[in-house]
Amino acid sequence: MALECGAIQLGRVSLDGTKLKANASKHKAMSYGRMKEKQQQLKEEVKQLLAAAEAADEAEDASYGSQRGDELPEELQRRETRLAKIKEAKKVLEQRARDKAAAEGRSAAEAKPEDKDQYNFTDPESRIMKGADGIVQGYNAPSGGGTGLAANRRSIR
Predict the structure, then answer these.
(1) Residue 64 pLDDT
(2) For position 149, what pLDDT does the model report?
(3) Fewest CB within a 10 Å sphere: which of 34, 80, 93, 133?
């Protein structure tokens, strides 16, 4: 009835997405495939550093006796910390793949992330996407436009 007397109008509603830049560097993102490679590389580096530390420890024990410190060398601490962060990022990407598969009606148990899937260590909620400024690390925010069911300026009395 309100439509027939002109109190409201029926029109089109259009939705679009807009890219908002994130406060995160796109250079701090890592793909799932790169995570697998980097994880293996860091494991090998940790093995090598542990072997070198063991050899140095044995040499020091021979020179100075059995006194030793409890701290890990700084290089080893950084790599182990980075390795832990990569393991956590892989878990997040694997969970995203399971969630996506479940939303699409596929088996979540068999879902695996693609090698190109990205994770940003600075802002994990942001994504790499094409924007007006080229490739940006940001968010896709929905924006509404057009006309919808809008009240006319006339009032019904």
Answers:
(1) 65
(2) 44
(3) 133
Indicate whether 29 pLDDT > 60. Answer: yes
Report whether pLDDT(48) > 90.
yes
Tokens of 62: 């021979």
Instruction: Report the DSSP beta bridge partners of residue 16.
Output: 143
pLDDT of res. 69: 63
- Residue 15 vs residues 2, 10, 126, 143: alpha-carbon distances, Å: 25, 16, 21, 6
Can you name the residues that pair with 29 across neighbouring β-strands? 120
Partnered with residue 145 across adjacent β-strands are 14
The tokens of 102 are what? 């479940």
Chain position carrying tokens 């993102």? 29
**Are 97 and 86 a contacting pair, CB within 8 Å?**
no
Tokens of 152: 């006319």
Strand ranges (E), the chain: 8-9, 13-21, 29-31, 118-120, 127-131, 134-146, 150-151
Q: Compute the residue count for the chain.
A: 157
